[in-house]
Design goal:
The protein has four helices and eight strands, in the order E-E-H-H-E-E-E-H-E-H-E-E. With 182 residues, the protein is α+β, with helices and mostly antiparallel strands. An eight-stranded mixed β-sheet has the order 1-2-3-4-5-6-8-7, with helices on both faces.
Amino acid sequence: MLRYDISEDLSLRMFTVNDAEALFELTMASKPYLREWLGWLDYVETVEDSKRNIEGRIKGLIETGGYPKSFALIYQGELAGTVGYNEIDRGIKCGTIGYWLGRDFQGKGIMSQALETLIDYGFRDLGLNKIEIRVATGNMKSRALPERLGFKEEGVLRDAEWLYDRYVDHVVYGLLRDEWAH
């Protein structure tokens, strides 16, 4: 199982179907908090839904030639969230990152460290030339991450996502391989 130890407390590792219950519980515990910016939460109603999600992530290994696209965030032995590549375009060597963190794990620097590791992984192991992060314009906490990591704001996609009762615009951030200083 592929695992990246970031610090004594934090690691990224491949999801397994054994994570289904923990992923479901974390999702449900954080649902009111996450619902403001994540449009898929109403589709998660059972542990089986989380299991199918994980199975889909595992099938993504084929698309990347054996490299995982997404990872479980493990903080002090607990599943804290997820981070990964929602899309990878092999033709232009570009990956689009998505991430979320459970409410109780906010404010500990977890996601900043995880994103740094995922960016390194994308450029080094996946051979990407560009990495994008797309964030709802009003989601200031998520927008702060790519800005802090040196991504450039490339533009705004209007009405890019339907969130339950309204469309939201997305800011597109991009980072090129030769801009990554880590």
